[in-house]
Every structure is written in structure tokens, then in C-alpha cells.
Design a protein that fits this description.
- Keywords: Hydrolase, Metal-binding, Zinc.
- Belongs to the metallo-dependent hydrolases superfamily. ATZ/TRZ family.
- GO terms for molecular function: deaminase activity; hydrolase activity, acting on carbon-nitrogen (but not peptide) bonds, in cyclic amidines; metal ion binding.
- 38% of the residues lie in helices and 24% in strands.
- With 454 residues, it is of the alpha/beta class.
- The strands form three sheets. An eight-stranded mixed beta sheet has the order 3-2-1-4-13-14-15-16, covered by helices on one side.
- The N and C termini lie far apart (84 Å).
Amino acid sequence: MTSPLSIDTLISASWVIPIVPANTVLEECAIAIKDGAIVALCTQREAQHRFVAREQIELPGQLLMPGLVNAHCHSAMSLLRGFADDLPLQRWLHEAIWPAESALVDADFVAAGSRLAIAEMISSGTTSFADMYFYPEVTAGEVAAAGLRAQLAAPIFDQSGCWGSGADDYIHKTLQLRDDYKSHSLLEIAFGPHAPYSCGDTTLSKIATFAGELEMAVMIHLHETAQEIADSLRDHHCRPVARIADLGLLGPRTQCVHMTAVEEQELALLQQHGSHIVHCPSSNLKLASGIAPLQRYRQAGVNVALGSDGAASNNGLDLFAELRLAALLGKVSAADAAAIDCHTALRMATLDGATALGWQQRTGSLESGKQADIIAIDLSAIGQQPLYNPASQLVYTAVGGQVSHSWVAGRCLLRQGELTTINRAQLLRDVAQHWQPRIAALRPAPASTFSLKG
């Protein structure tokens, strides 16, 4: 008789959605973890015979699934949550966000904002995220301390800014940061050309060359609004997707963020190059940028991941809220209630997100050999009763606040709703006492005020 295998952790729950195989909900199963990886997903009875665990965690009434992959955000901008609302994109950028960033952004701002964002993401089920913001080396330190998995796209502009003197300086710093973190198990550095309208042909061509030679990912805001496309036609006599394709920037590690308006020939280009679309539904709706026709993208064979965008334009980082909205908008845009079903939405927020980041062999599904990036959701609340279909409850009811546990590479980052690697009280005190008053002073005064005093 074979002796039981010694493992680190055995997690048992009422339900498991592994993502692979597709459309699967398992009952009364357990996940065995050793050295940060999944060694088995089996029935609880089988697990008791096969394994001796240093730690056993039993979660009745809860569901295990892969941690969510937020494929696009600007984490430090969490400090600007609610700072400037109800404005279209270009006014929002030019009249509110960019002036505020010019006055505020430094290493301390990025550290505090990133820590706030990371705490929110862990608490709502995200275990991997892709970021684009200034001072990515500071964000890297916060990520490493908190224990998440992250791709950090260093921002690149033609113009000088708080993190660089111009495109060449931004590119140089990106390459240096890549060298600094090339052996880190949870962090990867990518190029982050902000958008085709903020980077010229020379800059985009240089990035394409470096990214190809070094096999680095590229994240770019693309086809976010109809105005962006009209401006490209005026200035470059072509649409943005065609322009970056001609410059060599499309490839299997290119993440095209937003993509609210895409023609058939552009979908064909994305599919041909193996590039990915990152859909940010809340931000696109809040800024009135447009509605991405997800079903058409998927039918064209293009991988679609989900992102929250920054909290300044969302105003939250709860990816469960994004996958719900993506499913609903996908139905409306296709005029088909079955267009984006609950299992499809869950896959977009997990394995499809991991695929967009090039991490599908590491994370995104609960399979033996993959990293133990796992979350547990408590489905016992009033809002989840009665429970007929756990997958449906995850997508169509508000479960971001029901995440009870989170593990990344087997390390527990959230236990019974409490952060284990971030001091929540200290974080909230820092934001409330230091950052909120300072940032509030930069907001324009309201047009009118009212008082209830006699």
C-alpha cells in the first residue's frame, strides 16, 4: 500500500470551478498544494487517503476557483478614486487627471496608491494583475511585499514626464527594470506605450524591436474612443490598429486595451498576429467611450481578457463586478441572451486573462502542476440564496465582497476576509490622514453648495 504524500496545504470546499475542463462545477472536492503548486484536485474522501497535510482548511458552503486576473489597471490611481467624475475621456485626462498627476505623482504617491489598490484587489479575489503607471519600480516593491503576481508595464510617452525625460529615457528605464526583476518568480516587466496618439512612429518601432528581441509583452491603449480613430485617420491616414501593425507592434504578447470600435479587417489582423484584447467595461461606460462587441471578437478567434482600468475611471477594482458587466454587455451588443454565458465570463476573468499575459501555463485554472493561485468565495449569504447554479451566482450576484481566502503560489494573502501581508488599519489611516486632504485641495470647488442649517 502506497504511503500518503506529505503536502503543505489541503483545502476542501463544497464546490470547485476549475475552469478546465470547461463548464464544470465539482462538489465536495479538495485541492492539494505542495511547494506552491497544485498536486491534485480530487474528492475529499480520496484526498484523506492520498495526502498528509501540514495545514488542512475546510470551507463548507464555499467555492474554490482560480484567482482572478485583472489584465489592465493603473494601481496607483486608486488615490484619485472619485477625484474627477462624469467627464468624457479627453476632458477627464487634460482638465483633471493629468494636472493632478503633475502636482502629485512621485514615489510616495505611487507606493501609497499601489498598496491601496493591491489591498482592494486581494480582498475582492484578484491574484494576478497587469499594471501601467509611473515609477513601476515602486509598484514592484509593493507587489513583492504583498505577494501578488503582476506584470508591470512601464509607461512610455514621447513627451517628458515625472518618470522620464522622453521616449528614449522611458525605454532605457524599462529595460533596466526588466534586468532587475528578470529572475523574480511573481513579477514580469513589460513595455507600456501609452497610446498611438502619445507615441510617434519612431518610438513605437523601437519598442517593437526590443519587445521582439527580448520576448517582452506590450500593453497599449488602443481604439478606446471614436475620436482617437478619427484623429488617426486625419494625422496618419489610417486607423490605429493598422498603424501599429505596420510598425511591427502587433504580436502574440501584445495586449490591446479597450478596443471599443473594431472593423472586420482589424479583427483579422489581431487574430493573425495572436494579439489580445483587454476589455474594461466599467471604465468604457463611465467615460462614454463605447461598448465592445465581445461576441464578435470571440467569434473572430481573438482572445479577450478583462481589466478594471484605474479606480479613477471605474471607480473600483473588483473584477467580479467587471465580469458581470462584461457578460451583460456582451448579451446586449450581440442581441443574444446566450452570447456570453456565466462560464465564458469566468474564463475571461481567469484563464483568458492569464493567456493575454502569457501565463496560461502557470495560472488561470486549477490543474495539477500549475501554481496554486486560488480564491474561496462564501456563497452562504442571503444574496446568494437559493443556490441552484454556483457559476451563475458568481457572475450575476455581487460576490466580490464574499471572498474569504486567497492564495498566490500557495501563500495565503487573505484569511477569513483579513489581509495577511498588508496592515489594513495603517493603510486606511495613511490614506485618510495624509493623502485625502492633500488631494482634495486640488479638486475644483463645486458650482454650488447647500446647507440644512437654519
